[in-house]
Amino acid sequence: xxxxxxxxxxxxxxxxxxxxxxxxxxxxxxxxxxxxxxGPSPWRRHRxxxxxxxxxxxxxxxxxxxxxxxxYDTAGRLREAIETLEALFSRLESAPSACAPVLALxxxxxxxxxxxxxxxxxxxxxxxxxxxxxxxxxxxxxDLSASAGLGGLVGNGSWAxxxxxxxxxxxxxxxxxxxxxxxxxxxxxxxxxxxxxxAGDKAALARLWLGEAAAQALAxxxxxxxxxxxQHGSGSSSASAAAASAGSTACGQLAAAAAADAAxxxxxxxxxxxxxxxxxxxxxxxxxxxxxxxxxxxxxxVPYVExxxxxxxxxxxxxxxxxxLFRGWYxxxxxxxxxxxxxxxxxxxxxxxxxxxxxxxxxxxxxIFRRExxxxxxxxxxxLQKTVRRFVRRSKFDHYVTHNxxxxxxxxxxxxxxxxxxxxxxxxERCRSLLPWWREGGQERAD
Length: 447
Fold this sequence. Notes:
five-stranded mixed beta sheet, four-stranded mixed beta sheet, Xyl/GlcA_transferase, alpha/beta, xylosyltransferase activity, glycoprotein, 15 strands, transmembrane, transmembrane helix, globular
């Protein structure tokens, strides 16, 4: 899923992965000032075809009733969006070794600019999944590119067949460790480091993260068995556990380098790349155990812990839907991973492939949450607008965070009682029931 301003990131992702790729593109359409809908704001879908560019224009069917005088200035924006996607599709179709794209444009009519700044991320993820017809699928955000190793694995028919069989037999999903570039590098520098990490091997990852000495230690550690950062570590908080568990000087060097990097005392040349969200929310990807990933060539199992939000490959029919009540970037992906874990899926790490986050301007909600600059000013201002809800005057962003925390509470309660089901739109359910590649065998394999 992506917004129009992130299409360059989607293009980079497509060029990194020579396989089928389905993307849901979001276009919020705001009512003119003073107009307000009297009915719901349903999803609007603007044509989709397998390996076909999106076409079409806005249709009035299913749009709900609106107050007299309500005016939508949509024709120009829709036309511009469609032309942009057609141009992107043409470039990708002609690019060697690029993905086989399916691009679908979804619009949503809204009266509140703050709501337009909160992309319906989980609804878009569900929409992007519908065109997928391959045995394996991975839900990966548009700002992540795939290493060369992933394309090689997917192109290996025996590997893919074996992974499908193992996923079905053991109810497993297969994690793709994610990395991100240092924000201090800026966008240009970050893209350069991302390209180096995607094209390189694990020694390159170690060098970019921990420095040249760590890259040299990696070769020694690999010969003496995998290092480990402990159950909850990501290589930064469990240095002593990593050294003790591996019992080798090389692992000790890697663990010490990771601890130094976490303390901001890494050697020159280090810290240009690091495990995803390590410095903002280590629990989100910490269980992946990045030291072990760097020092093993074998898949390994990791535990689920609260807050875990990895990207993973799964049997398509076993990839559980996303709860569409979540919008924006607070708890959205975590809720799906939690649901996957509640269905007793095991989490295994793929040792030969990884993802790298490409730098970009933050979404308005993320910019407010992390107190970053660079987001679209109108989106930030709309979310910071004060409003009263249940006799409490706060910013719309604060109300949004409270809302998502309440959703998390009700999910926990429902899972404890065995009654939780992620909210899906009627359109998603109908498409899934009618599309032939979703009808065959899906229910038995997902239960």
